[in-house]
């Protein structure tokens, strides 16, 4: 039987008591989260953690707004729909935004539920900080934490949960398999191979700023980031220098010294991204430092559809432009990959229904 059965059973003992339901309890836990972020701000953002913490987006303003929303969410509406908590919830945090994607699900999942938190072991520094500090701010009878690798997650999932949140396809498969035994609902925060189509009539400078911001934020380790660019050869010739200028504008001329550009989370991820750099012809080449797990923005062009960079989510600071001729009727490459998290078309005019071809690109959400 799982070593975690005693840990989870404590939450099952607390859940029937009803202590998690009153507004005062919810408010106290949210205020405690705010205090945690305030008191641990230096630890969360100092240079040693910048690879995983620099862009988690904690600005200290969400607490009052969240409590205001909580007041609204707890009200019965005119149809008397009762918004009831699930029970005992498991939150497995992804590594790419280890604070944001742990605490945001906690704010929602902790709304009347008992919660088991599992921070990502891949972002080790953040896991250590959260494990050492967070639970001291919360109700210890209703919140608990597990620090473990993938084998321990499998054993943890032998326990029954009422709701599970996690990210990444590999952990998602493990969670879905375990959840099926109890018909437990699961929310997966997944990524994908997200295309970005740029029309010839766009303002190339503005487009370059948007693409650099969207792709290179958090070193490309964002699930809905544009993963590759589709454009004509004519647009490519204008776009490459504009991307170089936009990168300098965001991160400065010495990117390796920029406090706003992070390294990859670990050496395994560095090697996965580095292996993709041989695809196509490099139009913008960034430095790579294996010792520091550092890869600067790189843009390969004339990439072929069967190149490795086109058949998996990159999750790093590499932005390819395939050799496919882009246009309203052009086929999208990588058609056989998993569902995309987003598809973006950049054009000064709204595309017609006939040219948009919404069914040709499988995606979980469209912009």
TrEMBL record:
One of its GO terms (molecular function) is oxidoreductase activity, acting on the aldehyde or oxo group of donors, NAD or NADP as acceptor. Keywords: Oxidoreductase. It comes from the Eukaryota. SUPFAM superfamilies: ALDH-like. Belongs to the aldehyde dehydrogenase family. The active site is at 189. One of its GO terms (biological process) is aldehyde metabolic process. Pfam families: Aldedh. Residues 78-320 form the Aldehyde dehydrogenase domain. This is Aldehyde dehydrogenase domain-containing protein. PANTHER family: ALDEHYDE DEHYDROGENASE, ALDEHYDE DEHYDROGENASE FAMILY 3 MEMBER B1. InterPro entries: Ald_DH/histidinol_DH, Ald_DH_C, Ald_DH_CS_CYS, Ald_DH_CS_GLU, Ald_DH_N, Aldehyde_DH_dom, Aldehyde_DH_NAD(P). Residues 322-367 are annotated as: Disordered. Residues 341-358 have a biased composition (Low complexity). Gene3D superfamilies: Aldehyde Dehydrogenase, Chain A, domain 1 (3.40.605.10), Aldehyde Dehydrogenase, Chain A, domain 2 (3.40.309.10).
């Amino acid at each position: 039987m799982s070593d975690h059965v005693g840990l989870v059973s404590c939450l099952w003992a607390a859940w029937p008591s009803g202590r998690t339901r009153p507004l005062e309890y919810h408010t106290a836990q949210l205020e405690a989260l705010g205090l945690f972020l305030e008191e641990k701000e230096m630890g969360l953002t100092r240079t040693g953690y910048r690879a995983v913490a620099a862009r988690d987006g904690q600005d200290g303003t969400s607490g009052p707004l969240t409590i205001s929303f909580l007041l609204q969410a707890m009200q019965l509406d005119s149809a008397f729909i009762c918004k009831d908590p699930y029970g005992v919830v498991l939150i497995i945090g992804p590594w790419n935004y280890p604070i944001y994607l742990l605490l945001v699900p906690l704010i929602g999942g902790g709304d009347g539920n008992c919660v088991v938190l599992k921070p990502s072991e891949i972002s080790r520094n953040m896991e250590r900080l959260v494990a050492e500090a967070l639970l001291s701010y919360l109700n210890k009878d209703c919140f608990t934490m597990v620090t473990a690798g993938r084998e321990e997650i499998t054993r943890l999932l032998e326990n029954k949960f009422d709701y599970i949140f996690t990210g990444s396809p590999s952990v998602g498969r493990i969670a879905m398999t375990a959840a099926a035994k109890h018909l437990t609902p699961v929310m997966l925060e997944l990524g994908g191979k997200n295309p970005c189509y740029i029309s010839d009539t766009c303002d190339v400078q503005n487009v370059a700023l948007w693409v650099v911001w969207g792709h290179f934020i958090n070193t490309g380790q964002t699930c809905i980031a544009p993963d590759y660019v589709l454009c004509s050869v004519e647009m490519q010739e204008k776009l490459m220098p504009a991307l170089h200028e936009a990168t300098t504008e965001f991160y400065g001329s010495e990117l390796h010294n920029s406090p706003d550009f992070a390294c990859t989370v670990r050496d395994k991820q560095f090697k996965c991204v580095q292996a993709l750099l041989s695809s196509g012809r490099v139009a913008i080449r960034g430095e790579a430092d294996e010792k520091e797990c550092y890869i600067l923005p790189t843009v390969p062009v004339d990439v072929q559809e069967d190149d490795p960079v086109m058949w998996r989510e990159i999750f790093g600071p590499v932005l390819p432009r395939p050799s496919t001729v882009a246009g309203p009727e052009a086929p999208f490459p990588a058609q056989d990959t998993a569902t995309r998290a987003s598809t973006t078309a950049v054009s000064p005019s709204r595309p017609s229904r006939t040219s948009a071809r919404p069914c040709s690109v499988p995606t979980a959400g469209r912009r």
